[in-house]
Design a protein that fits this description.
CATH topology: 60s Ribosomal Protein L30, Chain: A
Largest sheet: 6 strands, mixed
Order of helices and strands: HEEEEEHEHHEEEHEE
CATH class: Alpha Beta
Low-confidence stretches: 1-6, 195-199
Structural class: alpha/beta
Number of strands: 11
């Protein structure tokens, strides 16, 4: 991979750089110590990022539902609880203490106004459930959230720089210039190479 400077003044600088760029899709997890820029687009889904600065290990997932059940099979990255467990296992394998891992939480958009939700809308609010399960499981593991950008009524596009652990958040816009900018950026990102048999898990070194 191309050697890159470690620090970028802003997102535009890193987007225009030759660093490898990958898309993290729904139901995918990533764990890597390779330099790259990863993008993911969230609505009611949630993403948790994990970064260990001393060894530069970076982990993240894009989960669509809060909790797995017996029919989940190996699709563990689709669910918040099992996705967290899966990424955490990678840190445990490397004897990395959880206190040294910077954890951030994003997503959980609610398309209904949270102030005027009916009982049915609250029941269907998957974003709220995703955020609640993520916080509960992270707390159970002993992680402390260092940053979060959750809920609200608009989606987000996230960008992760795996060398520094920096995360940029763009709130979605319905304006024409906003849509055109997103289209221009689309071709710069490639799908992550999924390992066969690892079920939407990318373990890059």
């Amino acid at each position: 991979m191309t050697a890159m400077p470690e620090l970028f003044p802003n997102l535009n600088d890193i987007l225009s750089s030759p660093i490898e760029k990958f898309e993290l899709g729904i139901g995918e997890c990533v764990f890597t110590n390779a330099p790259m820029l990863i993008r993911t687009v969230l609505g009611s889904c949630v993403c948790v990022t994990f970064f260990h600065a001393p060894n530069r290990f970076f982990g993240a997932f894009h989960a669509v539902m809060p909790e797995a059940d017996i029919s989940t099979g190996t699709q563990f990255c689709k669910f918040v609880d099992t996705a967290i467990s899966s990424v955490v296992f990678r840190f445990v394998q490397r004897d990395i203490p959880f206190d040294d891992v910077v954890v951030k939480l994003f997503g959980g958009t609610n398309k209904f106004s949270s102030q005027n939700q009916t009982a049915t809308q609250k029941l269907l609010d998957v974003g709220m459930k995703n955020v609640a399960v993520a916080k509960a499981h992270l707390k159970n593991y002993g992680f402390r959230l260092r940053a979060q950008d959750v809920r609200g009524e608009v989606g987000r596009t996230l960008y992760f720089h795996t060398v520094t652990g920096d995360v940029w958040v763009k709130k979605h816009q319905s304006t024409l210039p906003g849509r055109m900018a997103a289209m221009r950026e689309e071709n710069a990102f490639h799908h992550l190479p999924i390992k066969k048999g690892e079920c939407r898990y990318v373990d890059i070194r």
